[in-house]
Amino acid sequence: MTVLLIVVGSQLETVSAHFKTYSEPGIRPGVAYKIPSLPAPDAPRPDPAYPQSNSDANLPVRKSIVDLTPKEKAAFVNALKTVKNTIPQGSKLSIFDQLVLQHVMVAGFEKPFKSSGPASGFNPAHPGHPAFLPWHRQLLDDLENALQKVDPSVTIPYWDWTDPKALEVMLSDDFMGGNGKGVKVKIPGVGTFEGGPVQSGPFADWTLNEKIHIEPINFSSLGPKIVRFLQVPPFDKYPMPKEVIDRMMNLDDYDVFSAVLEGGGVGLNEKGKLVEDWAVHVASHAMIGGVVLKDYQKTALPANQARNLGTMMSILSSPYDPTFWLTHSNVDRLWAEWQDRGHTGEKFYPAKGKDYGYNLNDPIWPWDGGKSKPGNLNDTDLVSMLPVTNKIITAADLLDFRKLGYTYDTTRLRSVKPLLEPKSKPKHS
Ligand SMILES: [Cu+2]
Asked: Does domain 2-14+157-215+225-373+391-420 have CATH number 1.10.1280?
C-alpha cells in the first residue's frame, strides 16, 4: 500500500498546453493531433456498400454483458485467468501479459524514443490515428482466439455505455469486481473519493508485472495490482446518453468517426459540431481509472490533467484491467455497426497520403513482418520482452470483421438485410 501511495503521488503535472492539438489522457504530453474538420455538407460521398461477408451463420457472437448468464460470465472469467497464467515456451511473459506489453509499446514509436524501421515516429494505435480501430480489432481478436483455445464457447462481451444496468453488472463480484480501496483523493470543492488496488472479485488475486504496469507520464510503476478509482467526477455520469452515440453513427467520414469514437480530445456537441473534449471511449477509461484535473471547472483535456489515478486511465497499461476488453469490444462493435450502416469496405478508410501505418494497405506494427521496432520508454528493456511475429496485417485485412470469425448480437446479418439471410440457421446464443 505504501508503495502504491508513492506511485500515485509521483504523477506530477508535466503537461503543457498545445494550441489546437490534443492527446489521449495518459499519452505523453506533446504527442498530439489536430481536430479533424467536418466535410462540407455537399462534399461528394462514396456510394454506400453492403456487408462483404454475406453470411454469419455459425459465427461466435459477442454479446452485451447484461445478457450473459452466470455460466457464461464464469466461463469468460475462467478463460481470462487461464490466459493470464499461460506462459508460452521461450517467453518470460504470459499470453495476456504479452498483449498488454504490445499495447504499452505502441508509445515506443513516438518521436522521443529510439524506434527503428518504417513505423518509427508513428504510434500505430494512439492517439487520433486512423489505425486506432483496426489495431484494436486485431488485439481483441488475438485475445479472443487465446480465450477460445481454453474454452471454445467464449467470446469477448461488450460494455454498452448507454445501458443503465451495464456498469453494475460489469463491476459485480462475480464478474470484473468492484472499486479499488485504501487510497483517498480529494478534489477541492467537489469531495473526497476512494480508490486503490482492486480487492474484490475474481481479479483481486492477479499479480501484474510491475515493469509493464506503468503510468504514462513518467513511466513509473503502478504496482502489482489492478488499480481503480471509479466514477471520480467529472467522469461520474452514467449511462452515456444514447444521443451521443446516435450523433456519432450519423457521421460519414472515417477520420471524423474514428476520432469521435476514440474521444481523445474530440467530441461532437448537440449541434453536430466538433469540440474539444474527452468523451465516448476515453470517458469509459476515465470512469474506471480516474483522473484528477487541475481546474475542475474546465474541460477535461490533457493540458488540464493533474494526475492519472488507476490502471484504466493509464492508457498504455490499461489492458491490464479486464474491463479494458469489454470497453474495447464495445468500441469495435460500434465501428462494426457503422460499417454495416453503409460504411463498409475500402471506401471508408484512408487509402493513401497518411503517415506509415495509417493507410489502408500499410502493414500495422507489430504485424509488419518484423520491419519496425519500438524504443524503450524507460530504463527497462521492454522491447526485448516483446513476442516476435512475422505476420503482416493491414487495415484492409481487418475491415470485414466477420472474416475474422465473429459477429455481434447487434450486427447479425439476418436482422440487417433480409436478402443476406444465411442459408443455414445461425446458432442461437
Ligand atoms: Cu481504450
From this structure: yes
Note whether 21 and 34 are within 8 A (CB). Answer: yes
Distance 326 CA to ligand 1 centre (A): 10
Q: Angle, nearest 10°, between helix axes 323-340 and 254-262?
A: 160
Return the H-helix or E-strand segment holding 292: strand 291-293
Grade residue 8 by pLDDT with cuts at 50, 70 and 90. Answer: very low
Count the neighbouring beta carbons within 10 Å of the beta carbon of residue 95: 22
Residue 304's alpha-carbon distances to 116, 150, 165, 199, 276, in angstroms, are: 32, 43, 31, 30, 12
Phi-psi domain of 156 (left: phi exceeds 0; alpha: psi -120 through 50; beta: other): beta
Which tops the pLDDT comparison, 125 or 45?
125
Residue 281 CA, ligand 1 centroid: distance in Å: 6
The pTM (predicted TM-score) of the whole model is: 0.89
C-alpha 168/C-alpha 329 separation (Å) is: 18
**CA-CA-CA-CA torsion sign (183, 186, 192, 195):** negative
Rounded CA-CA distance 166/180 in Å is 19
Share of the chain above pLDDT 90, in %: 67
- Specify the length of the chain in residues: 429
pLDDT in tens, 164-222: 999 999 999 999 999 999 999 999 899 999 999 999 999 999 999 999 999 887 888 99
Tell me the CA–centroid distance for residue 176 and ligand 1, in Å: 17
Q: Where are the domains of the chain?
A: 2-14+157-215+225-373+391-420
